[in-house]
Amino acid sequence: xxxxxxxxxxxxxxxxxxxxxxxxxxxxxxxxxxxxxxxxxxxxxxxxxxxxxxxxxxxxxxxxxxxxxxxxxxxxxxxxxxxxxxxxxxxxxxxxxxxxxxxxxxxxxxxxxxxxxxxxxxxxxxxxxxxxxxxxxxxxxxxxxxxxxxxxxxxxxxxxxxxxxxxxxxxxxxxxxxxxxxxxxxxxxxxxxxxxxxxxxxxxxxxxxxxxxxxxxxxxxxxxxxxxxxxxxxxxxxxxxxxxxxxxxx
Length: 250
What we know:
By secondary structure, the chain is an alpha+beta fold. It has 8 helices and 7 strands, in the order E-E-H-E-H-H-E-H-H-H-E-E-H-E-H. It has helices spanning 24-35, 57-74, 78-89, 100-110, 121-124, 136-155, 188-199, 236-248; strands at residues 4-9, 15-21, 43-47, 97-99, 167-168, 182-183, 233-235. The strands form 3 sheets. Strands 2-1-3 form a 3-stranded antiparallel sheet, covered by helices on one side. The protein has a two-stranded antiparallel sheet with strand order 4-7. Helix 3 (78-89) runs antiparallel to helix 6 and helix 6 runs parallel beside helix 8. The radius of gyration is 18 Å and the shape is globular.
């Protein structure tokens, strides 16, 4: 059986094996979960057989949607997931691109950690909208905008079943946020499934989650090419598109 080892180097340079895992994504997720909660500068890394667990958009879709299902089952709300996703992503903020295993590990770790508490300042802050976000800061602005919208929704009370057909966020006049006002998805599974399907594709009719529309269709946005495609890595622009589609894609 293949095994991946998680190692840590502490402040004094001592190297300690933290644990072993049967899956590379799980090991990377544990590393991110630990890094996101460490006050001191400690280094974590994963040793094991070469080669990624996720090679295609289909691989990533199945992993991420599966984690969304687990979060729904455990009662983790979308606002908790987004706060945790931002939290575990911060150690990666200096990277330009992330391999697919790391992207899957971010989502997995976001289902593990205790989310940082919300901040009231998010709701009154201005977040610049960008058509082509390219950095961690731009991705973070989208996530914080979505957290502010969800807090505004919460002020109005529980959403009814019709919200999943589309509803506008109740933003106060003058609020500037980095996302559109329309929402369709309000739980981690729906957000992640629509985010992956809209940004990268990778879904299949066999999943039982979505079906192709019969007849000619004129898409309102650029749709990913159908099929299973190899992907080496994703940039923050790709993750920003995933987050936007998580909110707006049906």
